Amino acid sequence: MTILRQKESHNTQLRNTDFYVAKKCFLPKREFWCSDFKADCSEEEIARAYSEFYQEVGAGLMTNKMLSGFLTDLPHAHANQYAYCGFRIIKEKSYDYEVKIPIITQNDGEYIVAKVESTGIGIEKGLAAIRKYAEANDLELGNDLWQFNIGINIERLGLTKDSILAYAITDNEL
Question: How far apart are CA 40 and CA 86, in angstroms?
Answer without folding.
Answer: 6
